[in-house]
Design goal:
alpha/beta, two-stranded antiparallel ribbon, 10 strands, eight-stranded parallel β-barrel, 16% strand
Length: 274
């Protein structure tokens, strides 16, 4: 999917909502556990109930890998279902990969060719030769971990190195990498005060923003400082939407929560220059 395709979906839906599909079998409705593939059936119901409100879905692969080969098959069925039924949706493999070049190439093939995700989250710590193999894929996007929403983010990401914070070095250096136009970035919603400085460095790139909702991030604050002329944001909500209910009507309740966020986004877009 091209960036232009994504922007067009944001315009059509008046939404920049990304829904995280982080499936925990201990939290989903108990009646689904009787089915052959409860993870996929849960995802399918959530997707069918919310696809017109969201522009992206983001399965965190840890929640699938934890269940071994069965979980991986559920992930594959989920991405296949999205690509076959809702090809306009932007898909994100939240896998946080990153290794030496030839290993990164294999990771890229796994997620971009075999599973056919539109994007993948990648750690920048090992530098350009660990990231450029992902960037080499046309119309695929590499989402670089930059400034995350967890408490430990301050251990390294905001440290000063030669007078500049590490996360800023990541942003500036990544812009020099081959096919950097395929880069997006992860910045946590709980770091809203940093967005002004971040936008000075990457004014045009999309930013994936976790941490709105259950983690306490503010949608209005993120948009105030982080939006650009193409919106340029994908706001992720996971638990607050998919676990809105653990009853039979879980998909309906998930839609209700997604709609609340979507309507707030539509209001923000209406007031913007987008």
């Amino acid at each position: 999917m091209t960036t232009e395709n994504l922007i067009e979906q944001i315009k059509i839906k008046k939404s920049f909502l990304c829904i995280g599909l982080d499936v925990d079998l201990t939290k989903i409705p108990k009646h689904l556990l009787e089915l052959e593939d409860p993870i996929f059936e849960f995802n399918k119901a959530i997707i069918d109930a919310t696809h017109d409100l969201a522009v992206a879905y983001k399965p965190n692969t840890a929640f699938y890998e934890a269940y071994g080969i069965k979980g991986w098959k559920s992930l594959q069925k989920t991405i296949n279902y999205l690509n076959e039924n809702y090809p306009e949706i932007f898909t994100i493999a939240d896998a946080k990969r990153g290794d030496i070049g030839n290993t990164s190439s294999m990771y890229a093939k796994a997620f971009f060719e075999d599973l056919n995700f539109d994007s993948i989250t990648v750690a920048p710590y090992m530098g350009k030769d660990s990231v450029e193999p992902f960037l080499a894929f046309e119309n695929k996007h590499t989402i670089l971990l930059t400034l995350t929403s967890n408490e430990g983010a301050f251990d390294f990401q905001t440290l000063q190195v030669d007078g500049k914070q590490v996360y800023k070095k990541v942003l500036e250096t990544s812009k020099t990498w081959k096919n950097a136009h395929n880069l997006m970035y992860v910045v946590g919603a709980t770091k809203a005060e940093y967005f002004t400085e971040i936008r000075k460095i990457i004014p045009d790139n999309f930013i994936l923003v976790p941490g709105v909702g259950a983690q306490g991030g503010s949608l209005s604050e993120v948009c105030k400082y982080g939006m650009n002329s193409n919106v340029g944001l994908l706001i992720n909500s996971s638990r607050g939407i998919i676990y809105a209910s653990n009853q039979i009507n879980f998909a309906e309740k998930a839609r209700e929560e997604a709609l609340k966020i979507k309507l707030e986004m539509a209001s923000i877009i209406k007031k913007s220059t987008f």
